[in-house]
Inverse folding.
């Protein structure tokens, strides 16, 4: 559990896209961030107040979150200076970088001397159980995709936000680095040991009120041969009552796999539903979330109308439109 | 890669079943073991010559393999004495116990001083890649089960033995502790990090001769909610050309999951085949292996005849009968 609120470190981001973790925190959990810290030459701006470490501390920030991708996979000397100063000023550090904070001896030494925590959210810090398969109280919704990176996290976050706005009981259950940094907690599922994958999702979404929804962030795809085991563990560990299908219609092949075509929405629906019903016989597919960012307004709307009529399910782009109709469908269960 | 041949350590096994790892090595790779080492009170005997450490060394043994389950999950002081002596005598140690050899400071110190290796086959010692999904040359067969512990390893080993006897090119590809100790190499899949599961199976079964078969040891079941992600990774990382369905007909519920009924053979066939065809469109189900150990001869034969006629696939118990008909089916692909 990472202490909030954060100061978002944008470093020397070469462009706006490099700061997408910080942007995600600002978009989805604005209360979690007091401001942003930018170094000289930073080309990103997530629209928060620029602050020094001292100003952020004064504003109550507890953790400096690295909200930017590092260049070349290393933590540069320039970054290091700021990170060390932050520890000295009393900040914890949190990062989703492949280059772990804990692998930097100087950061470890300063963190120890100052009594601060280094959070590497790529590495599990919990000993997860093996999944028991026992039914849990409360409800769960899982986003499943035709492919990786088609908008599963965005969909779950957008639905969670809409549910909270309606006064429904909802929680976004993060299963990836960005999601964990956004909410301050979660399971870095891709780094969990095989035997404990499904158990980690049971742990993440425990018994809850009968009308409480865990909106579980999906990962991978049942049809993506590199990561399908992770998706499977989400379906069986999550015991979802509801599935939302996520799709990006302009994708020409599976992400990173040039020889693999995307499955149809029908194939994902049938496969995911049959597998989900092993753990929860009442599971339903409640809607379809389409990532239409690479389509014109006209193409997007006509594509979604066609899918909606073909599949008989509410079909929306929660970014272009909103997640209201998906939440309507969930509320109707 | 564990150095062969072995001396099999049976310790103070309370009964024959406790020595099933040693029995597996003796049954499937008799050339891998020069003899057995039994302590006072040992109630197991795998039928090899009893040897002292010195005699085994003289006979060429390179590794002392712990072929017995430990009591209470700890390596006892009595065992320790033998293990330390073995290191001093120049043996490597290999173990599939949960209690790792490397977590015992005295064993680590003696191994270092003597320059010997400690092999904990529960822990991967390779940095596996992320699966690429690229087609590999050679052929692969995967055993998939209705449940855990229904005879998948036995089936793959029996088919591999039959293929070798026929002069076919075959390799048993171990994916669990016992299989790894039997063959001296493999992937401890349940201990692999989620992102690398499918990649570890690609690594285990690389390009090979067009007429070479990797007989891949299955794990878990697509319908076992605790371990289904592991099974999925085998199906997509293994790219099998052939599947053998494995089943134990007297099982009343999924292993360790009292609330979960076993799936039908038809459900496993359809689900496994659709998923396998994502990675290998030519994949076929070639036969059914039934574990009839808890059935009378008459019941077993009539059950298998019924399944064979219903499923239209050769159906055998490779222990009660042999794996010949399964290999016939494989050879016909």
């Amino acid at each position: 559990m990472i202490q909030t609120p954060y100061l978002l470190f944008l470093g020397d981001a070469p462009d706006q896209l490099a700061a997408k973790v910080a942007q995600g925190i600002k978009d989805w959990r604005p209360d979690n961030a007091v401001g942003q810290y930018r170094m000289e030459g930073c080309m990103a701006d997530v629209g928060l107040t620029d602050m020094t470490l001292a100003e952020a501390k004064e504003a109550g920030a507890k953790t400096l979150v690295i909200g930017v991708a590092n260049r070349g996979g290393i933590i540069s000397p320039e970054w290091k200076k700021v990170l060390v100063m932050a520890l000295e000023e009393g900040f914890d550090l949190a990062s989703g970088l492949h280059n772990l904070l804990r692998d930097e001896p100087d950061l470890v030494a300063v963190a120890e001397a100052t009594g601060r925590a280094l959070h590497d959210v790529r590495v599990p810090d919990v000993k997860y159980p093996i999944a028991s398969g026992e039914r849990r109280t409360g409800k769960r919704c899982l986003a499943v995709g035709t492919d990786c990176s088609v908008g599963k996290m965005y969909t779950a976050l957008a639905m969670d936000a809409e549910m909270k706005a309606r006064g429904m009981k909802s929680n976004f259950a993060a299963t990836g680095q960005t999601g964990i940094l956004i909410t301050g907690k979660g399971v870095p599922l891709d780094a969990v040991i095989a035997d404990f994958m499904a158990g980690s999702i049971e742990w993440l979404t425990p018994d809850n009120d009968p009308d409480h929804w865990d909106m579980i962030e999906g990962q991978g795809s049942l049809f993506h041969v590199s990561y399908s085991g992770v998706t499977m563990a989400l379906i069986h560990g999550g015991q979802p009552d509801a599935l939302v299908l996520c799709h990006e219609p302009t994708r020409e092949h599976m992400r990173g796999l040039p020889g693999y075509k995307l499955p149809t929405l029908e194939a994902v629906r049938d496969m995911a539903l049959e597998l989900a019903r092993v753990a929860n016989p009442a599971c339903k597919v409640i809607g379809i979330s389409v990532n239409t960012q690479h389509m014109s307004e006209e193409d997007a709307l006509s594509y979604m109308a066609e899918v909606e009529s073909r599949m008989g399910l509410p079909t929306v782009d929660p970014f272009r439109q909103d997640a209201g109709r998906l939440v309507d469908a969930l509320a109707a269960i």
